[in-house]
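User: I've been trying to design a sequence by hand for this structure and keep getting stuck. Would you show me what you'd pick, starting by listing the structure so we're on the same page?

Assistant: Good idea, let's start from the same input. This is the structure you sent:
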């Protein structure tokens, strides 16, 4: 973690309790996530238990405790997608990239999460890869989109 950067971020706040969310947002904007050491420093800076910082960070979906992969996959688990086979699509993606929902590959190539609705229900089942949405997904389309990585192949066996 870049100590100097964190110090600079903290120095622009007074350390009041109401600064917690803006500080978390600033740290995430600079580090891409909320590193554990940063949450400890934030807790000391504001004068609250680290558990309180952690519970706020884990409550809001805008905050991320783990880093994102270069290819971030979002699988929809909303009703329209569910009815049209989203659970099967999710399993195929997990098999192809070798990680489960909420995980990131060790080489940081892929991360995978699910959401309640991507907002393209007419194209269900949908997934998003970084900013691009792919609709009417099938297991074949999953294989095309995610050619098996070494890590994925190991887990498929
Ligand atoms: S339910 Fe999947 S896009 Fe809306």
């Amino acid at each position: 973690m870049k100590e100097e950067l964190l110090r600079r971020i903290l120095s622009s706040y007074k350390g009041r309790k109401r600064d917690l969310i803006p500080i978390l947002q600033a740290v995430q904007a600079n580090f891409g996530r909320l590193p554990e050491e940063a949450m400890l420093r934030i807790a000391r800076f504001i004068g609250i238990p680290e558990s309180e910082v952690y519970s706020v960070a884990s409550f809001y979906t805008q905050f991320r405790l783990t880093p994102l992969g270069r290819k971030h996959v979002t699988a929809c688990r909303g009703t329209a997608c569910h009815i049209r086979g989203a659970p099967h699509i999710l399993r195929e993606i997990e098999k192809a990239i070798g990680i489960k929902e909420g995980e990131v590959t060790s080489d940081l190539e892929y991360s995978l999460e699910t959401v309640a609705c991507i907002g393209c229900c007419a194209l269900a089942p949908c997934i998003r890869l970084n900013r691009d949405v792919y609709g009417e997904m099938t297991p074949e389309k999953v294989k095309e989109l995610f050619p098996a990585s070494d890590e994925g192949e190991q887990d498929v066996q």
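That's my pick for every position. To get oriented when you compare it with your attempt: Residues 151-157 have pLDDT under 50 and may be disordered. Residues 20-31 form the longest helix (12 residues).
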